[in-house]
């Protein structure tokens, strides 16, 4: 089986400065496991920006300087003390530790470059960032730094605007400021043709319509729980990103070596109509693959059934919510067929 994810169904996750600081310091193992897991998902593109790269360099500088002179990473109060005392603490000036700190920070930045493909390179500092960032500052209570992080997450270059980005942050103040002032922020960003990023708060990560919440800044979860959580989170984000094309999800039915066992089953959600389409796409429940199937082929059209009878498309019978079809021979390999017979694969219309 050839694993592939259609570009429209990939999720861009933008890493805030504080997430990368925690990743580099390694103080939150569950967060690190999350980032590494997402980095290996075919359906996810991890992103950040040049602005975050600059912020990260300074934060790592103070963290490693503080660790060198205090014996531990400085807390918020200690960082403020270091800055307010001209980078002199415990009788040691930064210049005395500059070479040591510079070496380790550069090593950590190189580690990020080698671990993540083009993490910073696609979101450059460009002139068109200025106006929306200034407007964001003026029309909200968000700090200038967080305003720049937010704008740079959805506005990578002068000519590029990302329409669906999940901003992953450990800063509860930033997360609350954006989620609590959506109308204002949407208005500011829309003036530049930008969409407000979806917020993923590391301390309050929700999925399943808010029924399940995790704080991955804590270390109370095992790896299997975290991986399953992220798979479900990706499925939810993919559905929201492509909501206009969303049909429903697969369910399990039929026994092997029977007629019913040779069919694929799915139910409708958020609609009572199964529309006519050239192709449908399945986003697999492990968030690793998209599998598309042509409804209209040279052999003829796939036949859809409901409740034991064939239906013509579009079908808007409000009682017809569950459908099945039998793929033509050679349409799917055996692994793909078995995967699509599993429950909870997402189903979408595909415009080809």
Q: Strand order of the main beta sheet, please? A: 12-11-18-9-10-17-15-16
Broad structural category: alpha+beta
The general outline is elongated
Order of helices and strands: EHHEHHEEHHHEHHEEEHEEEEEEEEEHE
Q: Give the tally of β-strands.
A: 18
> Which spans of ≥5 residues are poorly predicted at pLDDT below 50?
none
Q: Alpha-carbon distance between the termini?
A: 22 Å
Beta-strand residue fraction: 15-25%
Rounded average pLDDT: 93
The Cα radius of gyration reads 24 Å
What is the percent of helical residues? 25-40%
The largest sheet is: 8 strands, antiparallel
Structure, explained:
This protein has an eight-stranded antiparallel sheet with strand order 12-11-18-9-10-17-15-16. It has helices spanning 17-25, 29-39, 50-70, 76-84, 94-115, 130-138, 144-154, 172-179, 182-190, 223-241, 334-340, and strands at residues 11-15, 44-47, 88-89, 92-93, 165-169, 198-201, 205-207, 212-214, 246-250, 264-268, 279-283, 290-294, 296-297, 300-301, 304-306, 309-311, 322-325, 346-350. It has eleven helices and 18 strands. A hairpin with a 2-residue loop joins strand 13 (296-297) and strand 14. It starts with 10 loop residues before the first strand and ends with a strand. Helix 2 (29-39) packs across helix 10 and helix 3 (50-70) packs across helix 5 (94-115). With 352 residues, it is α+β, with helices and mostly antiparallel strands. The relative contact order is 0.12. It is elongated, with a radius of gyration of 24 Å. The longest helix is centred in the first third of the chain and has 22 residues, at 94-115.
